[in-house]
Automatic annotation (TrEMBL):
Lineage summary: Bacteria, Pseudomonadati, Bacteroidota, Cytophagia, Cytophagales
Source organism of the structure: Spirosoma arboris
Molecular function GO labels: triacylglycerol lipase activity
SUPFAM superfamilies: alpha/beta-Hydrolases
Name of the protein: Prolyl oligopeptidase family serine peptidase
Domain of life: Bacteria
Record PANTHER family: LIPASE 5, PTHR34853
Length: 393
């Protein structure tokens, strides 16, 4: 064979290789695992539901509760090791049954003790993750950045990217954990979360669909009372009458988180009037005792920033908005029209916008009554009932 022909064949071979898809080699994210406790069926049967509307029937289940650590990233891309809890159910009569995976995003935690890893597992008690586990779901619970083994780092409150990364990387780590234990699971993934957990759920869902659609089969997502329509949420907070106390604490926490994350570097007095600015500067915990409506706390310049499309704070709000995409995953937004902490309009506007963009399997469950915290129980029951319908489809 002469050299020109050899060169031609070699060139064609290189061209063929160049046209082949390059396999993506993903680094393992799981760092470590350890079983914290094992609840046998007799222990589970001694527990009782926190609310009569939640039917807790552990049947013949037993549950292994495990802490895992895994690699994720901070808001600036810095790698960090985070933590979470995985509930592994099994049944005495069906020892080899394959269960679906449910990622449970916890609501606002005011301390590390309220995060999944902060639970006192040595003293068995009813919990929402246990509720799902004893209905046949492997439950993964990310702590988020700022809790668990990252509790020395400020929590990025209501920040889309951090919540999504922590949740999705927890799912990846859980998948590795199941493989290490040679556990067969059903392959379907469900997402659920309420309040900040609802916002984390929709944030993670968007990331999963955009980046990990071949890695996970999303079967259903249930989001409760989250501030998904972030610009509209702050438009409301700075114009309308709101409840004081803990609500002010939450809103101020979010403002200061965005100031830090987006390097806005504004003094607290830029956002809030005197004497509230001085009280918050002394300690954000003082916000709990401020009974005035949030709009009365805000300076005129801050209110103007919220409305100004070119302001740095409004750009931060836009970056955390979850209304500008569409999903084909069966998804429900559950929200009470009487919610005094996160106004119902955030779910309504998100539903309307996402429907207009082609989200054909999106539904809005508008509850007529119920304040923010008590409605969490209704959310859990409705989510489980819906997942049970989707599980066998």
């Amino acid at each position: 064979m002469n050299k020109p022909v050899q060169y031609l064949i070699y060139s064609l071979f290189l061209f063929f290789l160049a046209c082949q898809p390059i396999p993506v080699v993903r680094k393992p994210v799981l760092v470590s695992t350890n079983q914290i406790v094992f609840y046998d069926n007799s222990i589970l049967k001694r527990l009782s539901s926190s609310n009569d509307s939640l039917i807790y029937q552990p049947a013949d289940y037993q549950v292994s509760i495990n802490r895992i650590s895994y690699q994720t990233t901070l808001y600036d891309g810095t790698p960090i090791t985070a933590s979470g809890i995985v509930y592994l159910p099994s049944q005495l009569t069906e020892t080899k049954k394959a269960y679906p995976l449910l990622s449970f995003q916890h609501p606002t935690a005011y301390s590390n003790a309220e995060a999944p890893s902060g639970t006192n597992f040595a003293s068995p008690s009813f919990s929402y993750p246990l509720y799902f586990a004893t209905h046949g779901y492997i439950v993964a619970c990310p702590d988020y950045i700022g809790y668990g083994i990252t509790d020395k780092i400020p929590h990025d409150y209501e920040y889309r990217q951090s919540l999504a990364n922590a949740t999705v990387d927890m799912l990846l780590a859980t998948k590795e954990f199941l493989a290490q234990k040679s556990l067969t699971w059903a392959g379907k993934v469900f997402l659920a979360g309420y309040s900040e957990g609802g916002y984390a759920t929709l944030s993670a869902q968007k990331l999963l669909e955009n980046t990990y659609s071949t890695e996970f089969q999303l079967a259903g997502s249930s989001c409760g009372a989250g501030p998904y329509a972030m610009p509209a949420f702050f438009d409301y907070l700075t114009k309308k009458q709101t409840s004081g106390g803990v609500a002010n604490y939450l809103y101020i926490w979010e403002v200061l988180s965005y100031d830090r994350i987006y390097a806005l570097n504004k003094p607290i007095s830029y956002y809030f009037k005197s004497p509230y600015a001085e009280q918050i500067t002394q300690s954000i915990d003082n916000a709990r005792s401020i009974t005035a409506s949030f709009d009365q706390l805000c300076t005129d310049q801050f209110k103007a920033d919220v409305l100004n499309p070119s302001s740095s704070f409004r750009k931060a709000l836009n970056d955390n908005d979850l209304t500008n995409w569409s999903t084909q995953t069966p998804t429900q937004l559950i929200h009470s029209q009487q919610d005094e902490i996160i106004p119902f309009l955030t779910s309504l506007q998100t539903y309307t916008a996402m429907k207009q963009q082609g989200s054909s399997k999106l539904s809005l469950v508008a509850l007529a009554t119920g304040f923010h915290v008590p409605t969490e129980v209704i959310f859990m029951r409705r989510s489980l009932n819906w997942f049970e319908q989707l599980k066998n489809k």
